[in-house]
């Protein structure tokens, strides 16, 4: 179930907020701590057929209540008398508010500064406080931080646990909570009404993450990263998987430590992962085996779990080189448009190394430049390419410019790229921000350069990745529909 929290400041608007939320959610949490004046609880709670949770949080628990503790407890007791489905009580006041009527008790534990490594003591204390549901809230910047919450949700024979992860992996926890039987998860009614940064809206859960389709037997495909490109990939994969009638969906992942990562993925039965373009170098150490291009580029964007461990694959270079050559133009299928062309690769990380390796194979004459001259020097020596100091960039003209630094910024300051370098005679590709146009691509297009369309590289790459994971062709109509909607 999805629970939407509403935080009205006005007593008059409280019923409107509950009504709007109840149209999209299975249950509604009414947060009293934002109200300017004491409410008429009988009037507010009357007339709704969806279960309502009443809460009133102190500032130290992530709420906004500014009155005295005695006033807060009076407000909670008055609310309970009106018979809401649930009331949320912090662990330190659980014994001060006895059970009343049919209202169930949500005993909550909140930690806003850091996650904990174990929740057993919290569950034991909540058991002693006559809890019907235990709610645990803490920061979840990575999968590691969310793991204890997930462990608590999946424990059998204990009081049901609801978790609220604060941060990027809170979404990960919510989707996993759906699979593993959490009583409900929290979502925002709409953008601008999030309870914390990164909290998904109910429409995002349904339209992007296919929340209602997830069940105990759903297989997850890991998507490492939370950027715009990764969200687009999730939307396309989920729509295509649903169209094929497959009980598999995408799970966004924020990876922290590698110590227990492989074990966690095995427990979650995740056997395939895609990575964001900026994390292909970071995720490579997870692999036990690497195909030739993942090894030479020291970069991977696709990982598949085999019997002998994780296998790493590099799919971006093929799609990027193919699109680049098609843009330059082939006179025949065997033609190599990059042969003896002067190609400048800007970047020094795994993505840049991948492109240098790929262009070398196609006999391009490569120069390497980057914000970090030392890293660019090392990369150029590795592939016997020319090193071009970043400050000397503007004294050298080339045929092709390859942007392979997702963090590159434009401007006139040190370490920034000045777009005035770009000429009409150049062909430009940016492999860091697909399928969206980067500012660099927009500048190149406006300056008359021949541009390799990021969406074309992306279309080819996602089709290859989908078939590698699913074993079936990706419906191009679905890709077109979703990319068009995002324009």
What profile does the largest beta sheet have?
A: 8 strands, parallel
Determine the strand fraction and express it as a percent band. 15-25%
Number of strands: 20
Q: And the CATH topology of the largest domain?
A: TIM Barrel
Average pLDDT figure: 89
CATH architecture of the largest domain: Alpha-Beta Barrel
Radius of gyration: 26 Å
User: Percentage of helical residues?
Assistant: 25-40%
Can you identify the CATH superfamily of the largest domain?
A: Aldolase class I
Low-confidence stretches: none
Instruction: Count helical runs.
Output: 17
Instruction: Report how far the terminal alpha carbons are from each other.
Output: 32 Å
Strand order of the largest sheet: 7-6-5-4-3-2-1-8
Task: Walk me through the structure.
It is a single chain. The mean pLDDT is 89. The chain is an alpha/beta fold. It has 17 helices and 20 strands. The longest helix is centred in the C-terminal third of the chain and has 17 residues. The two termini are 32 Å apart. The strands form 3 sheets. It has an 8-stranded parallel sheet. A 6-stranded mixed sheet has the order 10-9-11-13-14-12. The protein has a 6-stranded parallel sheet with strand order 17-16-15-18-19-20, sandwiched between helices. The radius of gyration is 26 Å and the shape is elongated. It has 3 domains: 199 residues, Aldolase class I (TIM Barrel, Alpha-Beta Barrel); 113 residues, 3-Layer(aba) Sandwich (Rossmann fold); 139 residues, 3-Layer(aba) Sandwich (Rossmann fold), CATH 3.40.50.
Characteristics of this structure?
alpha/beta, Rossmann fold, 6-stranded mixed beta sheet, 19% strand
């Amino acid at each position: 179930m999805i629970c939407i929290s509403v935080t009205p400041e006005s007593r008059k608007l409280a019923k409107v907020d509950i009504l709007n939320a109840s149209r999209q959610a299975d249950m509604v949490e009414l947060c009293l701590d934002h109200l300017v004046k004491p409410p008429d609880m009988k009037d507010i709670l009357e007339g709704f057929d969806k279960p309502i949770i009443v809460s009133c949080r102190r500032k130290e628990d992530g709420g906004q209540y500014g009155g005295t503790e005695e006033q807060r407890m009076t407000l909670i007791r008055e609310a309970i008398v009106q018979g809401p489905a649930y009331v949320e009580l912090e662990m330190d006041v659980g014994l001060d508010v006895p059970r009343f009527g049919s209202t169930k008790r949500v005993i909550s534990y909140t930690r806003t500064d850091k996650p904990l490594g174990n929740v057993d003591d919290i569950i034991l204390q909540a058991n002693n406080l006559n809890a019907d549901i235990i709610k645990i809230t803490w920061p979840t910047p990575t999968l590691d931080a969310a793991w204890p919450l997930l462990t608590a949700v999946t424990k059998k024979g204990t009081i049901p646990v609801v978790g609220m992860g604060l941060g990027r992996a809170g979404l990960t926890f919510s989707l996993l909570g759906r699979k593993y039987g959490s009583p409900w998860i929290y979502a925002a009614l709409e953008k601008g009404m999030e309870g914390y940064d990164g909290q998904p809206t109910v429409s995002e859960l349904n339209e992007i993450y296919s929340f209602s389709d997830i069940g105990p037997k759903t297989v997850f495909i890991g998507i490492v990263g939370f950027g715009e490109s990764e969200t687009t990939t999730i939307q396309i994969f989920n729509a295509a998987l649903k169209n094929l009638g497959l009980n598999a969906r995408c799970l966004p992942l924020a990876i922290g430590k590698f110590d227990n990562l492989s074990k966690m993925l095995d427990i979650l039965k995740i056997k395939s992962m895609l990575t964001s373009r900026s994390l292909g170098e970071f995720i490579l150490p997870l692999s036990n085996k690497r195909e030739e291009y993942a090894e030479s580029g020291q970069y991977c964007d696709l990982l598949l779990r085999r019997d002998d461990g994780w296998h790493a694959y590099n799919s971006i270079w093929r799609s990027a080189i193919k699109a680049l050559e098609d843009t330059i133009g082939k006179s025949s299928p065997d033609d190599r448009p990059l042969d003896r062309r002067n190609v400048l690769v800007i970047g020094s990380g795994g993505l840049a190394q991948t492109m240098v390796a790929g262009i070398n194979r196609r006999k391009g004459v490569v120069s390497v430049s980057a914000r970090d001259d030392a890293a660019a020097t090392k990369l150029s020596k590795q592939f016997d390419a020319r090193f071009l100091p970043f400050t000397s960039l503007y004294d050298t003209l080339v045929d092709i410019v390859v942007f392979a630094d997702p963090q590159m910024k434009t401007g006139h300051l040190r370490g920034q790229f000045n777009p005035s370098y770009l000429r009409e005679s150049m062909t430009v590709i940016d492999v860091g921000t697909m399928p969206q146009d980067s500012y660099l691509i927009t500048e190149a297009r406006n300056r008359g350069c021949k541009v390799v369309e990021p969406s074309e590289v992306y279309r080819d790459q996602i089709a290859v990745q989908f078939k590698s994971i699913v074993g079936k062709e990706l419906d191009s109509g679905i890709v077109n529909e979703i990319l068009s909607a995002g324009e």
